[in-house]
């Protein structure tokens, strides 16, 4: 594959506003064309999640055809494993991002699958929170950026366990510094991390690399208890956003000078249940100076 | 300690060429813990120290793992079922015929506690191929399994292997079967597999698939005493039938019938062979026209030559 020119300064990326997430071929899923027609002005763009095997679905093609803005969220590459970033994935991802007209691509850091990219191997694993791992991830991000020709925003993933000696925000600050690129901060995943380490949701605000945050995710979730009594915060994208996540949103969104996009990840909910969440995010983003 | 003997299906052709970074080694240990609560228990127990020293990982990570509530590893109770669903998609018929004899969900899910599973994860193997190898041993060691189970597994395994060969070639990853051929060497091209099985195997596979389709229409029927079972599926005959697995334009693979002689010959050419070996191959297979048959397969681009 021929290397493409690196994109220009990420601070100059377009401000997309507040968007909705959708996932390739997944039902039930929010249909952006119908949703935007019913609630004008509520979604400014769509973040489309897919993998090279599934590509683009009819719903997102319809949105793009009517001039809708998009970003591309990959669900199938291991940023923490350099050998996983192969030519087939790079060309497929570049094609998808170009067809969508996405100004950048994004996706959770760590592993989307263990071993080869294949049936039965899917499992989202957080990166090992060390400098070693951050270096590998930063190299992967740079390589993809060069080959796809768009900014690549690594996202902090959810997990019930984390290994390594860094706080997840320090890890992503390091990835941002080493890759000289922006990041995506998922506030629901951050709330889950804070819970996992036994800290209050907003106790790590001073660690947020505010200047590097170009996109923020807000998603619904809630308390779940397993049969054997283990309780945790589930990131199931339900319509109701947990108070911990709203507390993070209120504290972080106004402080990110380069924030261009907020996604409300609510793709599996009936549209009328998510309207208030979008409205609150519009108010927050509108009031922010970025 | 896990031996590095590859699974029977994966003859090492997909093995990692470079040693994995330590972060990948650690990630694979967590995968094994997430899928196998018994293994997670061993990591938390006294045996954990020994397991850890074999992995050559910093000792501090064992302590970090153990600081987590043990229940973290099994919080997602459906993880094994979801992964098994993906595996069964390619081994439907042979798995069904084996399960008809064991009738045990635990027996099926014990794949995730098997050495085959652990070895595949720790060495970046394909889970589907590991499952196929494990199932073969299970079928062989279980009483009263239908005679069609093993030949059906051979057909399903050939398809599964061909898919992985294509996947590897597509990703540009160098594997043994994509290595440069020396002059005079001949082999089947990646994505092509030949297989000879007892006659009636394909009918058996199709009959089991049809039965599974009927089950999927009304899954609650599995609870009914008078529901039709897998008895009466076609039995393999005493002669052979031959098949060729080949790539489709949509990057999947398909099975077509070929003369048995070609299938038996093709089976020998999954590995590269030199022309000087042809006389001994001809004698072993009792096929005098090996040279001509290989040339015709080369002409049809089923085989490639160095
Ligand atoms: Fe997210």
Biggest interchain interface, per-side counts: A-B, 35 and 44 residues
Question: Could you say what the CATH architecture of chain A is?
Answer: Alpha-Beta Barrel
Bound molecules: fe (ii) ion
Q: Stretches of chain A where pLDDT falls below 50 for ≥5 residues?
A: none
Average pLDDT, all residues of chain A: 93
What is the number of independent domains of chain A?
Answer: 1
Series of H and E elements of chain B: HHHHHHHHHHEEHEEHEHHE
What share of the residues of chain A does DSSP label as strand, in percent?
15-25%
Which secondary-structure class do the elements of chain B indicate? mainly alpha
E-strand count of chain A: 12
The outline of chain B comes out as globular
Number of helices of chain B: 14
Which value, in Å, is the CA radius of gyration of chain A? 18 Å
- Largest sheet data of chain B: 3 strands, antiparallel
* Overall number of domains of chain B: 2
CATH class of chain A: Alpha Beta
Low-confidence stretches of chain B: 1-7
Secondary structure layout plus pairing:
The complex is a heterodimer of chains A (290) and B (306).
Chain A: E1 17-23, H1 32-38, E2 45-50, H2 58-65, E3 69-74, H3 87-100, E4 104-108, E5 111-113, E6 122-125, H4 131-148, E7 151-155, H5 168-179, E8 183-186, H6 187-196, E9 213-219, E10 222-225, E11 231-234, H7 243-252, E12 261-265, H8 271-287
Parallel strand pairs in A: 1-2, 1-12, 2-3, 3-4, 4-7, 8-9, 9-12
Antiparallel strand pairs in A: 5-6, 10-11
Chain B: H1 22-35, H2 37-44, H3 48-55, H4 59-67, H5 79-88, H6 92-102, H7 105-109, H8 115-122, H9 127-141, H10 149-171, E1 185-188, E2 193-198, H11 201-217, E3 240-247, E4 253-258, H12 260-268, E5 273-274, H13 278-285, H14 290-299, E6 303-305
Antiparallel strand pairs in B: 1-5, 1-6, 2-3, 3-4
Residues 155, 186, 217, 265 of chain A line the site of fe (ii) ion (FE2).
């Amino acid at each position: 594959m021929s290397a493409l020119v690196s994109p220009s300064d990420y601070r100059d990326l377009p401000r997309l506003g507040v968007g909705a997430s959708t996932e390739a071929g997944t039902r039930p899923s929010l249909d952006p064309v119908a949703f935007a027609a019913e609630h004008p002005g509520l979604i400014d763009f769509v973040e489309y999640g897919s993998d090279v095997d599934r590509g683009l679905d009819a719903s997102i093609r319809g949105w793009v055809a009517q001039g809708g803005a998009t970003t591309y969220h990959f669900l199938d590459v291991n940023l923490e494993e350099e050998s996983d970033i192969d030519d087939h994935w790079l060309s497929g991802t570049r094609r998808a991002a170009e067809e969508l007209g996405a100004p950048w691509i994004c996706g959770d850091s760590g592993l989307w699958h263990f071993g080869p990219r294949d049936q039965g191997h899917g499992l989202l694993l957080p990166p090992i929170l060390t400098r070693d791992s951050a270096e590998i991830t930063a190299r992967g991000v740079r390589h993809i950026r060069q080959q796809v020709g768009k900014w690549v925003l690594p996202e902090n993933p959810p997990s019930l366990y984390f290994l390594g000696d860094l706080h997840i925000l320090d890890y992503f600050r390091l990835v941002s510094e080493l890759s000289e690129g922006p990041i995506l901060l998922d506030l629901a995943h951050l709330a889950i991390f804070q819970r996992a380490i036994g800290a209050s949701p907003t106790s790590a605000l001073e660690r947020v690399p505010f200047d590097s945050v170009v996109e923020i995710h807000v998603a619904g979730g809630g308390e779940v208890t397993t049969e054997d009594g283990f309780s945790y915060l589930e990131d199931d994208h339900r319509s109701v956003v947990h108070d911990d996540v709203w507390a993070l949103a209120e504290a972080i969104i106004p402080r990110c000078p380069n924030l261009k996009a907020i996604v409300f990840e609510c793709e599996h909910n009936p549209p009328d249940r998510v309207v208030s969440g979008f409205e609150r995010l519009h108010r927050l983003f509108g009031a922010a100076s970025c | 300690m896990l031996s590095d003997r590859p699974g029977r299906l994966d003859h090492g052709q997909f093995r990692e060429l470079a040693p994995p970074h330590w972060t990948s080694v650690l990630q694979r240990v967590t995968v094994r813990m997430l899928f196998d609560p018994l293994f997670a228990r061993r990591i938390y127990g006294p045996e954990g120290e020994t397991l850890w020293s074999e992995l050559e990982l910093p000792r501090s990570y064992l302590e970090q793992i153990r600081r987590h509530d043990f229940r973290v590893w099994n919080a997602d109770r459906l993880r094994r079922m979801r992964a098994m669903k993906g595996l069964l998609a390619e081994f439907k018929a042979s798995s069904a015929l084996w399960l008809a004899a064991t009738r045990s969900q635990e027996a099926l899910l014990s794949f995730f506690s098997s050495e085959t599973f652990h070895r595949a994860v720790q060495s970046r193997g394909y889970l589907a191929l590991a499952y196929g190898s494990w199932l073969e041993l299970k079928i062989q060691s279980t009483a009263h399994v239908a005679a069609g189970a093993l030949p059906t597994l051979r057909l399903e395994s050939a398809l599964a292997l061909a898919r992985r060969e294509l996947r590897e070639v597509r990703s540009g990853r160098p594997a043994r079967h994509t290595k440069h051929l020396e002059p005079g060497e001949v082999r089947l091209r990646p994505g092509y597999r030949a297989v000879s099985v007892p006659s009636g195997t394909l009918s058996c596979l199709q009959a089991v698939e049809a039965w599974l389709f009927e089950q999927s229409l009304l899954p609650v029927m599995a609870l009914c005493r008078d529901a039709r079972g897998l008895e009466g599926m076609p039995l393999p005959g005493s002669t052979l039938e031959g098949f060729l697995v080949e790539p489709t334009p949509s990057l999947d693979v398909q099975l077509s019938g070929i003369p048995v002689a070609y299938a038996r010959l093709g089976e020998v050419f999954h590995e590269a062979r030199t022309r000087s070996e042809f006389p001994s191959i001809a004698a072993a297979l009792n096929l005098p026209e090996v040279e001509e048959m290989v040339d015709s397969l080369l002409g049809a681009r089923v085989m490639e030559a160095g």
